[in-house]
Structure formats: structure tokens, C-alpha cells
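User: Teach me something about this protein's shape.
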Amino acid sequence: MGTAKAAVVVVIMMVISLIFTHPSEVDGFLEGCQPGTTGCTIFTLTNIKDVGMPKFHVPAFNFQYETCGNSTEITETVYIDFMMMAKALGTGILVQPIISYLEIISLAKTFARKDGYLIDATQEFVALGAANTANSFIGGFPISAGMSRSTVNYQADGATQLSGIIGTFFI
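Assistant: First, the predicted structure itself:
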């Protein structure tokens, strides 16, 4: 019942924010997409045109972006290499994978204890590394434990991967 209460609160807060948010407050997020224009609604935050399946590519370890001054003219092109990214991320580049691994292990151990089975922490570590490595070739987000989704799935007695896929559409 706790999950249902949380869902009701989220829906109520979404409606309240929709009612009390003035359109001028979100103009910066719309990036040229105004409600009422083709392909845009009041709920559209960006007007992304390139949709579809991600392309398989080798992950980039550098990138560049262009900056504009007070006008729309490009004033500077900035190049960022891997060492600059690593320096900006600092110790987070080491801490984030450790926290992700600990989160997955704690969730797995919780469910294993409830259902009386054993988990292999080494296998979980290898699976997490393999999934994140493969994910980098399509530009996906890093993979970690989905605590809320897993808990809801567990409480609903979901027993197969199909229940996880269906749950993805509702959470």
C-alpha cells in the first residue's frame, strides 16, 4: 500500500505544478519548442528530432562544444579531452562504481534472504561490468540497481523478466 500512496502523491504534485507553473518559467527548457506548434504540447520540454534505435559506436573519450556570446554567433569552440573529464570528476570516477556495486549487492542480498537463496557477489560484479561496458557502445546510461522498481516487482510477485519490462512502462 505504501507504493500506491507514493504514486498518488506524485500524480497530485504533477497536477499542482502544471496548474501553477507559468509558461514563461519553462521557456528556457523548451529550446524552441512552443506548446501549440507542430509536434509540441504543453508537456513537451524539448523538441528532439533524432529518435529511434541507438547506433552502435566506439565510446568517445573526448568531445567539443561551441559557445555563443550575447548573440547567436559562435564565439569559441571548446575541446574537452579524457584527462580534463577525469580531473573534473575527481574521486567520483572511482566512488560511483563502488557505490553502484554495493547498491546492487545489498538489494540482491535482501531478496536472497527473504526467499532463501544464495547469490555470488563475484558473478554480480562481472555482470555489472559487462552490462556497463556493452552499454557504453550505444551511449546508454550507467546501469545500477533499480531499488524502487525491483521492490514493486517483488511485492507484486513478479517472477519473470517480462514483469520487469511491463513494470518499466508504469514506473
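Now, about its shape. Strands lie at 63-68, 74-80. The chain has a mean pLDDT of 77. If you'd like, I can walk through any region in more detail.
User: That's plenty for now, thanks!
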